[in-house]
Amino acid sequence: MKTLLRGLCATRESTKAQCQVLIQLQELLEKKGSEVKDLEKLLKEVLRLTRELRKDLVQVETKLAMHDATLAGFWTAFEVSRNGVLLWEINGYKEKKQEAISGLRTSFYSEGFYSDPHGYLMCARVYLNGDGVGKQTHLSVFFAIKKGKFDDILKWPFGLRVQFSLLHQNGGDPLTDAFRPDPNSSSFKKPTRESNIASGCPLFASQQDVENGGYLKNDKIWIKVTVGQ
């Protein structure tokens, strides 16, 4: 194109000025085209790095959650519940929920507790901004079997009823939900690693009810997990 324009300028003196303008315009377009290609390459690289960073964040989040469970178990080793009831105080609700919304940390674990003095070791997991079908609309609560001291003398699969309760902090009724374990689910088999995959209630409580129904007070909520026949 540029060669054709130069030839036209050389043969027609009357259009020489116009041709020079067209040549300059063509050169500018070629330069901009090259810059656009460079920007496209840069954008592709940024997207690739973003995907890798997202994967790394998920791995870090999982490790942090498991670290929480391990650390909580260490500090409460001598005062862990052994009657099948976990009373879980979750402080810093607003900050933790914002971390969940941003994707920095979507969930965290409770300390471990036992179904009875020589029973199953268990814990709870909460997603303040929801998980699965409850994401962005509900508070999701899950239950997990952990590898415990008495596993070799217990009956498997785990079959005890699990009930979650969000406690009202102004004398009202708790929000509750419960389930019985699926004996065919790997979540309730004898653990072969530190913790089985958690199972529970993704639609446990709407965030609107949690935050405006008397269940959130002084930036904290209380979750009760009851395990029994």
From TrEMBL:
InterPro entries the record matches: MATH/TRAF_dom, TRAF-like, TRAF1-6_MATH_dom
Region feature Disordered, mapped onto this chain: 175-194
Coiled-coil annotated spans: 22-59
Keywords assigned: Coiled coil
Record-annotated MATH domain positions: 83-227
Record has Glycoprotein as a keyword: no
Any one GO biological process: regulation of canonical NF-kappaB signal transduction
One GO MF term attached to the UniProt entry: tumor necrosis factor receptor binding
Bias (Polar residues) ranges: 183-194
Keyword field contains Coiled coil: yes
GO cellular component labels: cytoplasmic side of plasma membrane
Stated name of the protein: Chain A, Key Contacts Promote Recongnito Of Baff-R By Traf3
Organism (species): Stichopus japonicus (Sea cucumber)
